[in-house]
Amino acid sequence: MRPVGIVGVAQTRHAERRDDVNYAELAFEVVSDLLARTGWSHDRIDTVITASSDFWDGRTISDMAVQDAAGAAGKSASKVSMDGTFALVYAAARIGSGAYRTCLVVAHGKASEGNPRLIANAAFDPIFQRPMGIDDHLALGLQARRFLDRRRLTPGVLVEAAARSAAAAATNPNAHRRQAAHVLVADPLHEDEIAPDSDGACAVLLADAETVRGEAVWLDGFAFATDVHGLGDRDLGEPGVLRQVAREAYRSAGVRDPDRELDVVEVHDASSAQTLLWREGLGLADAGGPAWNPSGGAMSAQPGFATGLVRVAEVFERLAQGEGKTGLAHGMTGFVGQAHCAWILRKRARA
Amino acid sequence: MDLHDVAPVLVEGRIRIPYRWPAGRAGGRFLTLLRDEGRLIGLRCSRCRRVFVPPRTRCLSCHVPCEEEVGVGPEGEVLAWTVSRRASPPAVLALVRLDGADTALLHVLHGVEPTAVRNGLRVKAVLAETRRGHITDLDGFRPL
């Protein structure tokens, strides 16, 4: 594959409710910000990939309403109904194949428009699982319980992990500021140990090596994989396919010792149990190593399918500002980590 | 006119669409036996020998047919559990691996306080009085 570089990124401030805009206006807001930050105009963008969820947006083929807002009119646009990190796979392939030179990726999530728990319930199998009243929070509870028991840990580790995420989020200007109480929602998880439902968007602009000149941040490796779907068909207390995704991502980027070679890692952790579980899945030591979720991770904001792409934007910003050379950004689709995607970003001179 | 000054206008709506979901061949067999005979079954992979409950026509790992029917339960073990604190009264949901099965069924636990549930708890299936070919024909599980 030809080299793919990042021209720039943008994200909105994430919030409980953005009643002031509809979701197309939210996408327009983040793309306009990206163009302003990079000094680019739309005529330089060859193709556009969006990430959106029909059920969250409350209309089928939701991308149809967001593409013109992303500036895709007259261009070859496509979408994935998965996290934005998977949209980045699609986008990087378009440039890596040589078919396009520049590609814009736009992801949004607007949880406040619907009822996130009812929408999550509708994502489960309607014959055996949906009638049980399962939703994303309850699935996270099952996973957290299994995780604690498998490792013989007490719920105190979840409290500590959530506190570290909250402290990091307090330094993140884009974090979703919320009042989360320490009350049980889905045992053993409390409200403040579950990532918020946020409104927000993120955009990433990619280009080929002829366009991205000088020292830049490059997409030097990635991997993604999907596990079986049913909650009872895999061990929720294990990182599952993330182990394999991490191995393949490291290999593709030539990372041999992630604890030493990675400077920053951002993961999509939908609960404080996932904060710990995904760290294990990435093969990192319990302590030390790279800066871990310095933005607060998804616990700082969870704007639907933009959540993983925000991780890419956070890693990019840190590398671009000189806080290290190599970083990993993780995204997930499916409530308890059915599908994982990992990107290795590296700041270096043009290949 | 500065558009940033527009007070939000919210249009309320609701999507209601009826569906008919086939339970499938394996799911249909499971629900039929549950309704008519009060029995629980799984299907065994012809290659890895794992027994899937709910049953699947194909192995999720080997991608070969699961054709051998085996009786499972009615007793089993809790693999993971949580409590829906938003439900009134709070409902205990669990992943239960029925004896003879390799995968777990998601269902409700009755007759146990949330604080008394433990992973590894032995439970037994409770059938509903009237059954209609639905997963709720199994009323849930009770501790032994």
What is the CA-CA span between the terminal residues of chain A? 13 Å
- Read across the widest sheet of chain B, the strand sequence of neighbours is 6-5-4-7-8
Number of helices of chain B: 1
- What spatial form of chain A do the alpha-carbon principal axes imply? globular
The number of strands of chain A is 12
Distance between the termini of chain B: 70 Å
Summarize the biggest pleated sheet of chain A.
10 strands, mixed
Oligomeric description of these chains: heterodimer
Strand order, sheet with most strands of chain A: 3-2-4-7-1-8-12-11-9-10
SS-derived structural category of chain A = alpha/beta
Assign a percent range to the helix content of chain A.
Answer: 25-40%
H-E string of chain B:
HEEEEEEEE
Largest interface: A-B, 34 and 42 residues
Largest pleated sheet of chain B: 5 strands, antiparallel
Uncertain spans of chain B, ≥5 residues at pLDDT below 50?
none
* Poorly predicted parts of chain A: none
Secondary-structure arrangement, i.e. CATH architecture of chain B:
Beta Barrel
Order of helices and strands of chain A: EHEHHEHEHHHEEEEHHEHEHEE
The CATH architecture of the domain at 4-114 and 199-208 in chain A comes to: 3-Layer(aba) Sandwich
Question: Your description of this structure?
Answer:
The complex is a heterodimer of chains A (351) and B (144). Chain A is α/β, with parallel strands linked by helices. Chain A has a domain at 4-114 and 199-208: Thiolase/Chalcone synthase (Peroxisomal Thiolase, Chain A, domain 1). Chain A contains eleven helices and twelve strands. In chain A, the strands form two sheets. Chain A has a ten-stranded mixed sheet with strand order 3-2-4-7-1-8-12-11-9-10. Chain A is globular, with a radius of gyration of 19 Å. Chain A starts with a strand and ends with a strand. Chain B has a single domain, classed as OB fold (Dihydrolipoamide Acetyltransferase, E2P) (Beta Barrel), CATH 2.40.50. Chain B has one helix and eight strands; from the N terminus they run αββββββββ. Chain B has a five-stranded antiparallel sheet with strand order 6-5-4-7-8, with no helix packed on it. In chain B, strands 2-1-3 form a three-stranded antiparallel sheet, covered by helices on one side.
